[in-house]
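User: I'm writing a tutorial on reading structure tokens. Could you give me a worked example: one chain, its sequence, then its tokens, then a sentence or two explaining what the tokens reveal?
Assistant: Sure. Here is the example chain.
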Amino acid sequence: MDISIVIPLLNEAESLSELYEWIDKVMKEKQFSFEVIFVDDGSTDDSWQTIHELHKNHPEIKGIRFQKNYGKSPALQSAFQKTKGDVVITMDADLQDNPDEIPELYRMIKEEKYQLVSGWKKKRYDPVSKTLPTKLFNATARAFSGIALHDFNCGLKAYDKNVVKNIEIYNDMHRWIPFLAKNAGFTRIGEKEVKHQARKYGYTKFGLNRFFNGYLDLFTLWFLSKFGKKPMHFFGLAGSLIFIIGFVAVLAVGVIKGHALYAGIPAPLITNTPYFHIALACMIIGTQLFLAGFIGELITRNSPERNQYTIAEELE
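And here are its predicted structure tokens:
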């Protein structure tokens, strides 16, 4: 099969038939073999009934329905495990992603040998309340990840099939799929400017909480990519440095006390010097950080993913 198209959705019943007709037209024009996997993420409207009716008449349509709203990441992950196409395309169900972009995305994967191609909606039809945070969000993502993409969170993406089978998307990590792919060893990541359609039905699911949560997820992913399998390298180093500062402060307390005694002048109480409190705080914090790293190493050693790797090719 040439292409698997994965479409997560929440309360998008009005747009599904129109979206499928558009996809079907493009696929038939280019003579692609394809499947469409709709993932109903706990919709409360008629989305699932619409998918069910489409499936009756079009066997290439498949559906997954969640019992409740779990989020976009579980929706994508569940569909990725079922895809059969050589190239996997993800897109949103609200008609803001243009199916006419699919053939070129497919070509970039198959001919230019990209492993992931992310869409870039250079001209957007979203309000400033969404576009401005998105620009700040993407600038931060580029700095942390080292991946030169303008739009990390664009729903329209193309993947080589090996990518979707070897990454795990959880929580709200769908925003950071390029970063996850890079951490898994898929470094041929490209970008294509795509046309952004104005929303035709329904309303946006975007909220500012997603913006702030995205930053927290980015920091988590950055930390895990650097120290997830070697926590002692972070906590142990930080703890050791702080402990050394505390030890230097102890020496300073000793020097001050010794100098006073040697000079025959009244020596200040140790607890009255700032160095005593610095030494006490630093030694306690340093020891705690070092122990946190040690405990992290014990947890990592017993993790089922302690020896995780991705096989690029195999001969038998």
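What the tokens reveal: The chain has a mean pLDDT of 85. Residues 232-263 form the longest helix (32 residues).
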